[in-house]
Automatic annotation (TrEMBL):
Belongs to the TRAFAC class TrmE-Era-EngA-EngB-Septin-like GTPase superfamily. EngA (Der) GTPase family. One of its GO terms (biological process) is ribosome biogenesis. InterPro entries: AAA+_ATPase, G_ENGA, GTP-bd, GTPase_Der, KH_dom-like, KH_dom-like_a/b, P-loop_NTPase, Small_GTP-bd. Keywords: GTP-binding, Nucleotide-binding, Repeat, Ribosome biogenesis. GTP 2 binds at residues 183-190, 230-234, 295-298. This is GTPase Der. GTP 1 binds at residues 9-16, 56-60, 119-122. The keyword Ion transport does not apply. It comes from Zoogloea oleivorans. GTPase that plays an essential role in the late steps of ribosome biogenesis. Associates with the 50S ribosomal subunit. It holds the Pfam family MMR_HSR1. It comes from the Bacteria. Coiled coil: none annotated.
Length: 442
């Protein structure tokens, strides 16, 4: 499982700057989905060829008793409790403050591996800074500059070396799709889980250990096998499953990471919220196959149904690749169709794309529309092959491919998506340029 790193610190120390640096250095070229929200406080980070989850907590005030600051502190507390490692950020320029000390006291109690990160250290005397922050009793201060990138790689090396790498290779698909049911609080996730597996269809249920490993519940429907990945610490009580924990962003992110197909549950009786968009954005970014279940369809009239569809089109345009199902988890309506869509999305995500066909499609696409020139060079694409599954990755080889615009990448994506009928899964395109850009001057 990918480690979860949580950034903590008082306002203005540079948490967002570090967060952006860690989450934006994706080497795979992912065409930006129009409308995809970027103002998130959690994301998929990448450094040293490793991936991890990063959560940025809003300026943390452990002594706030009420109001929005208290609410933010509660969320930070939850993230701290669920972190694999804490990055406690302080500001070299303002020096040690009482607020830092309060946070340090709180973090020492959390008992999670903690790294003391002194930011804005560019051009400063390191030994003096270290001496000052050493007082916090959280080990050796690690001086970085998030804005300039100084020492960020060595910091990540230090942090990541304490987490074992995931074994290579996906385990094979005999047990069918691994499904995560995600959504913001109260949309009906638990109800959905119970409709799916609350009865005798559960094949086996591993009692949760004390580990952080997500709980998995294998179940069968219409002769097909699925594994449900738990997001909320499900416990079996009598005939039904109950969520024992509140909504957890980190558990949601981890479940998305471990799933093949994500079912995003939306609530038809409410407006689409920022939180819906953020969760959806993460699913897309993680490259997971997706089915959207618009739940509580039984409880809304025709007018409202029309309104929610418009709301979805406006606020979640980047989910257009997915199938939408209008369901009632409570009444069991639309659930069979939803599982069919899960099967379809899974197959799409796992499709094997033959190299000759890929290359032929690529060359046809170029014949229809050439990539635009950039600074005297025209990108030249020669052949394509598949670089991975779930999501399908198409690697295109050629030269001068560094400046293919996002609009052209989307054009290629659409071409492949339609030709291979890849509904329900995002698709990634990566370019591999040969070294000599002058080879193709035209
Ligand atoms: N000199 C210097 N400034 C930095 C560095 N990193 C961030 N800053 C600046 O510090 C300010 C605050 O940075 P943010 O990343 O927004 O801080 P934050 O901790 O996320 O703040 P909140 O969102 O309020 O919690 C901005 O003006 C940044 O440009 C750095 O490494 N060096
Ligand atoms: N009318 C209607 N109500 C539903 C439906 N599905 C769930 N609900 C109701 O919505 C409320 C929330 O459902 P839950 O299943 O607890 O929602 P959840 O997403 O698991 O919520 P958290 O555990 O807070 O994350 C409950 O009162 C359910 O009875 C549905 O299809 N139709």
């Amino acid at each position: 499982m990918k480690p979860t790193l949580v950034l903590v610190g008082r306002p203005n120390v540079g948490k967002s700057t570090l967060f952006n640096r860690l989450t934006k250095t994706r080497d795979a070229l992912v065409a930006d989905f129009p409308g995809l929200t970027r103002d998130r406080r959690y994301g998929l980070g990448r450094a040293l060829e490793r991936e991890f989850l990063v959560v940025d907590t809003a300026g943390f005030d452990p002594v706030a008793k009420d109001g929005i600051v208290h609410e933010m502190a509660k969320q930070a507390e939850q993230a701290i409790a669920e972190a694999d490692a804490l990055l406690f950020m302080v500001d070299a320029r303002s020096g040690l403050t009482p607020h830092d000390e309060q946070i340090a006291t709180r973090l020492r109690r959390a008992g999670r591996p903690t790294f003391l990160v002194v930011n804005k250290a560019e051009g400063m005397n390191r030994s003096m800074i270290s001496a000052e922050f050493h007082e916090l009793g959280l080990g050796e201060p690690l001086c970085i500059s998030s804005a300039h990138g100084d020492n960020v790689t060595s910091l990540m090396e230090l942090i990541l070396e304490s987490f074992p790498e995931d074994p290579e290779g996906e385990e094979v698909a005999e047990k069918g799709p691994r499904v995560a049911i995600v959504g913001r609080p109260n949309v009906g996730k638990s109800t959905m889980v119970n409709t799916l597996i609350g009865e005798e269809r559960v094949i086996a249920f591993d009692m949760p250990g004390t580990t952080r490993d997500a709980i998995e519940v294998p179940f069968e429907r219409n002769g097909r096998h699925y594994t449900l990945i738990d997001t909320a610490g499900l416990r079996k009580r009598g005939k039904v499953f109950e969520a024992v924990e509140k909504f957890s962003v980190i558990k949601t992110l981890q479940a998305v990471e471990q799933a093949n197909v994500v079912v995003l549950v939306l609530d038809a009786s409410q407006e689409i919220s920022d939180q819906d968009a953020h969760i959806a954005g993460f699913v897309v970014e993680a490259g997971r196959a997706l089915v959207v279940a618009v739940n509580k369809w039984d409880s809304v009239d025709d007018y409202r149904r029309q309104r929610i569809k418009e709301d979805i089109d406006r606020k979640l345009p980047f989910l257009a690749f997915a199938r939408f199902l209008y369901v009632s988890a409570l009444k069991g309506q639309g659930i069979a169709a939803m599982l069919k869509a899960v099967d379809g999305a899974y197959e799409a995500a796992m499709t094997k794309l033959a190299t000759p066909k890929l290359t032929r499609l690529l060359l046809d696409a170029i014949a229809r529309q050439q990539p635009p020139r950039h600074g005297g060079f025209r990108p030249k694409m020669r052949y394509a092959h598949q670089g991975g599954m779930n999501p399908p990755i198409i690697v295109i080889h050629g030269s001068a491919l560094d400046h293919v615009p996002a609009s052209y990448v989307r054009f290629l994506e659409r071409t492949f998506q339609e030709a291979f009928k890849l509904q329900g899964t995002p698709l990634r395109i990566q370019f591999k340029s040969s070294t000599n850009p002058y080879a193709n001057r035209d």
